[in-house]
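Listing S7. Sequence submitted for prediction.
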Amino acid sequence: MPFDGLFTYSMVQEFKEKIEGGRILKIHQPYPNEIVLTIRGKGSNHKLLLSAHPTYARAQLTREQYENPLEPPLFCMILRKHLEGHFIDEIYQKDCDRIIVFQVKGKDELGDTTYKELIIEIMGRHSNIILVDQGKGVIIDCIKHISHAVNRYRAILPGQKYIWPPKQDKINPFQISEAALSQNLDFEREDIPQQMVEKIAGISPIFAREIYERCDAPKEENIPKTFVSMVADIKNRNILPTLIRGQDKDHFYMIPLQTVKGEAYHYPTLGELLDHYYFGKAERDRVKQMGGDLERWIRNEIEKLQKKITILKETIEEGEKSGKYQLFGELITANMYRLEKGMEKVSVVNYYDENQQEIEIPLDPRKTPSENAQWYFNKYQKGKKAVVAAGEQLEKTKEELFYFEGLLQQIENASPKDLEEIKEELQEGGYIKAKKDGKRKKKSSSPQDHIEKYLSTDGTTILVGKNNKQNDYLTTKLANREDIWLHTKDIPGSHVVIRHPSPTRETLLEAALLAAYFSKAKNSSSVPVDYTKIKYVKKPSGAKPGFVIYDHQQTLFVTPLVQEVTRLKNHAKESKDKEK
């Protein structure tokens, strides 16, 4: 993974610059595997995110906002007891590995000085956050409890002696010389990048490939030189945090990667780089876990509706063919004198055909000619009514399908806090039953609390609803009549409002980009987005949540870009921080 030992080294240097010596003001645990510490250091408040997520494990300074649970988990309460109000005495990396130690100094209830270590081990699914009593070397608690049954080498449990992960017999990249590197690599083999990963500590495959691909022949001369030079740059903080968005995958590193194809974006800090790289990734994963059942239920409903639409279309198609039954009835009536009971068929001239061709009409021998004619007339009437009824049902089913596709899109863009509003909406609509339990129901928050705020380049406020409840509140209650309203054209998506009666073209395009990004077409290019004034947007009586009609619209075409979305979001955060 890009978060290798060298990246960890650079991150530790960033921590030293910003928060070493700082005081821990607050500790929260927004999700089971993540801790957020608010630290006052170097004259500013910083948020330190420590994540032991099996896929998105990392340590970084973040500017993202996290929704905290009403009741803090036990591990969070223990951290608060031992660390809140204490100072971060030192931050260091263990043996060029993906292990960061925060040494914390403070006083206990008796006024005695105490020393604790908060250790984060970034090791994929084995990642952990561990609080250790420094003097005794004993684990106070950890975010994941690991017994000897799971790990024979060491148990990570409260009261156990803390043991470092097994030490790998690898060379420290900051201490190796060109000559020593040459001796440790077999240049006659083709797997030189793999050899570097196996023999040098803190080296990821992406860094090893970068070294190898940058060097021309003779490799045995150029690789050691390039390696030592690049590691020296990292050690001396000569870095440029870079995000590369490729066609299939994004990559990040603390230096530009010349050998990775894609559009490169540079950031002033590693924390901002990771905020952009992980933007929405971890949250979508949490939403998938929390709302998995809901998403499956909605997908199942969509599948049912799609099948129903197919059946209704077949019914309409069959009903439209019923015109021939009217013809049969009229021709039987016109030729009644030729027919008698017991006939199975009759061939008659079709007077409605220009060529006056004969047509064969099946008959029921048990019925009289008059009864056969009436039977065909009845069949025609039934088919005619079926077309009307199926047509009405088809329109309603299409509306229902559009509604559920919109809900599915909202879940894909939802934060965990938005899921409850989506569930409430389905309960209010009678689609799912509310779970009854003995617990006292907590007071639900207003949709206004969750509407996301963005700031355009020129400082204009842009508001985005993330689900139907928020969309309804934003469009029908919060926005002013002269504000500008935007929505993707004929595509499920969020309602977006510009809080200005005549925004600049730049602001219009940025708001349209947000509307496209928070829609079903977020991965498309040239997405059509309609915009009009709020006064031209109406919600029909009895319409489903989030549904509106509008006129006087104009259309823009934009391509949603995640980096632009995060830029507009960060602009709003910066403005809010300045106000404080």
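Caption to Listing S7: primary sequence and predicted structure tokens for the chain studied. Residues 369-413 form the longest helix (45 residues). Residues 528 and 557 are 5 Å apart (CA to CA).
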